[in-house]
Amino acid sequence: KRIELVCKDIFRSGKIPIIIGGEHTITFGAAKSIDGDFILVSFDAHLDLRDEYMDRKLCHATFMRRIHEEIKPKKIIEIGTRAVCKEELQYAENNSIKYLTTQRIMRVKLEKILEEIKEGIGENDKIYVTLDMDVLDPAFAPAVQNPEPEGLTISMLLDILLGLCDRRLIAFDVVEVTPHYDSGITAIQAAKIIFELLSHLHRLNLMG
Fold it and tell me: Which residue of 13, 53, 83, 92 has the fewest C-beta atoms within 10 A of its own C-beta?
């Protein structure tokens, strides 16, 4: 609730909230603060579309399903998927939730991947991007809650992220950095991602 209220204040001021987490359920609170339709783009090794996990309806493994059911974004796009269960795949397919696996991203040219992501995103659509650090290969970001092998490299991630984000971006979060397990590399990568995105948005503003 606090995240929702703080984000509402930021939106009212005409700014873009950059949220740093933490558990991925913070995205649910931030998404609730958005007025009107928006498109949610998630960089994550997991779909997070389970109905329930360990007797909990709202947690890191279910929050995307709660967002789809309760907040109802115009579109959900998941990027970097590589660890899913049958329940999640069925839900995604039954509800037109687009997902791009890491394997596909590695086989296809960047231009084609960006084309697939942007398909159906209109010129005036609002975009919220959420980024779970486990989308990266554990070699680049080992200190996450649920590391999965065969993830994206930092270069691949930045190419896609910066190719997607433009003036339509209304909010951004980076989540699932776990300092207890970190030698510093995961936090450095998270800071690098935020720095590169802010620099990219600044360049766009300078260009008018």
Answer: 13
Distances from the Cα of 196 to the Cαs of 42, 104, 191, in angstroms? 18, 24, 9
Question: What is the 8-class DSSP label of residue 139?
Answer: T
Considering the chain, what is the average pLDDT of its residues? 96
* Mean pLDDT of the region 15-27: 94
The answer on pLDDT for 69 being more than 60 is: yes
Decide if pLDDT at 37 tops 60. Answer: yes
Angle, in degrees to the nearest 10, between helices 185-206 and 154-164: 30
Which domain CATH number covers 45? 3.40.800.10
Cα 136 to chain centroid, rounded: 12
* Per-residue pLDDT at 208 exceeds 70: no
CB 40 within 8 A of CB 71: no
Q: How many domains does the chain have?
A: 1
Q: How far apart, in whole angstroms, are the C-alpha atoms of residue 62 and residue 52? A: 6
| Separation between Cα atoms, residue 141 and residue 132, nearest integer Å | 10
d(CA 47, CA 101): 10
Provide the residue range defining the domain that includes 54: 2-206
